[in-house]
Amino acid sequence: MIQSIFFDLDGTLRHNLPTGGEVFADYAVQLGLPIHHEDRLRAFRWEHYYWADSLDLKADKKIYPEENRDFWLQYSRRQLVALGASKMQAEELAPKVHGHMEESYKPKSIVPEDVMRLLPALQSAGFKMGVISNREKPFQAEIAALGLSPYFDFSMAGGEVNAWKPEPEIFIRACQRADVDPQEAVYVGDNYFADVVGARRAGLRPVLYDPRGIFPEAECPVLASFDQLPSVLKQM
């Protein structure tokens, strides 16, 4: 029986509008890079891979430990290649796109309406709930500012426990915090590489939030809307 439901934060409970990937791609188009729908989906998929504690991310952090301008220039090169640019094009366009993002990208941080419909219902049903993120630092203050604190028993950042999704350890620590066995817990997140793979490794039941259809091959329950989660839980 499911006792706990854990959620990812960024891209799941909390969204940037517009997304950085969308603004990045739109500006690359303005600079002359031809980008099609399939290119955008490939780049979105790459973003998920990169931030899932990937080997590429680890390599970049070793070279640019402070995540300074050089880190984000390298990230821009990688993202441009994911969008279909040649390495030469990426080298030329990266400073321009990075500069645009640094100066102009001011997203609005929002919690989707379907999340705010879902959480009170799950709380009333008696589930223990937590938020697990690959962030470096604790984020309780942000959870409070978003109006989500009343629904969650705890939050956990990777930096707090020195473990990062998709490593099993961070999920296991969350289960210990909630005093449940992994098979009694569901994890909901938008990043297949970090959330689904990591939850499954730790013995939790994964649910993928994927309204854009980035991961059509996902072999787990998939949500296009959080309104679907109660029905998914009944079938588990």
Question: How would you state the average pLDDT, rounded?
Answer: 96
Strand content: 5-15%
Number of helical regions:
11
Instruction: Work out the radius of gyration.
Output: 18 Å
Enumerate the spans where pLDDT stays under 50 for 5 or more consecutive residues. Answer: none
The third-level CATH topology of the largest domain is Rossmann fold
The major pleated sheet works out as:
6 strands, parallel
Architecture per CATH nomenclature, i.e. the level-2 architecture of the largest domain: 3-Layer(aba) Sandwich
- N-to-C order of helices and strands: EEHHHHHEHEHEHHEHEEH
CATH superfamily of the largest domain: HAD superfamily/HAD-like
Structural class by secondary-structure content: alpha/beta
| Structure summary, number of beta strands | 8
What gross morphology would you assign?
A: globular
Total number of domains? 2
CATH class of the largest domain: Alpha Beta
Description:
The protein is an alpha/beta fold and 236 residues long. The chain folds into 2 domains: 138 residues, HAD superfamily/HAD-like (Rossmann fold, 3-Layer(aba) Sandwich), CATH 3.40.50; 86 residues. The chain is 50% helix and 14% strand. The protein has a 6-stranded parallel sheet with strand order 5-4-1-6-7-8. Strands 2-3 form a two-stranded antiparallel ribbon. Helix 1 crosses helix 5 and helix 4 crosses helix 5. The chain is globular, with a radius of gyration of 18 Å. The protein starts with a strand and ends with a helix.
